[in-house]
Amino acid sequence: MADGEGRHAWFDVPGEDTGALADVGVQKGGKATADNGVLEIDADESGALAFNASTATAPPGKLEVVMKNPSPIQHNISIEGEGEGDVVGNGGTSRFTTSLKPGKYTFLCTVPGHADGGMKGELTVK
């Protein structure tokens, strides 16, 4: 059915993407907590541009940040301005050690386009 300007009415009806890209950048909503000086935030196994947690907490001081990558896409983990692990493929582990003061930090994947696509979250150090 066309409107008076020749457009079809279905162009103006929002829909829901259920295709392969529907979950790109969708965080799983989980929370990661540091344990014995290690903070593990894994990549989403489906290949979506997401971690398995969108928030994390850790105490101040020395911290090893670890990301296992079970996905078919290459990823890494970084804390903005504080350190960065290697980019790894399926089955790899990205890790680095840093020392953090109390505050809020952004963790992200630094592969071009991944953080912009939603592969990032907030770390609270307290």
Broad CATH class: Mainly Beta
Number of helices: 0
Portion in strands: 25-35%
CATH topology: Immunoglobulin-like
Helix-strand blueprint:
Blueprint: E1 31-33, E2 38-40, E3 55-58, E4 61-69, E5 78-79, E6 83-84, E7 92-100, E8 103-108, E9 120-125
Parallel strand pairs: 1-3, 2-4, 3-9
Antiparallel strand pairs: 4-7, 5-6, 5-8, 8-9
Summarize this structure as a short list of keywords or feature phrases.
mainly beta, 0% helix, 9 strands, Immunoglobulin-like, six-stranded mixed sheet, three-stranded mixed sheet, 126 residues, single chain
Provide structural commentary.
The chain is mainly β. 0% of the residues lie in helices and 35% in strands. The chain contains no helices and nine strands. The chain has strands at 31-33, 38-40, 55-58, 61-69, 78-79, 83-84, 92-100, 103-108, 120-125. Strands 1-3-9-8-5-6 form a six-stranded mixed beta sheet, with no helix packed on it.
Short characterization:
This protein is 0% helix and 35% strand. The termini are far apart.
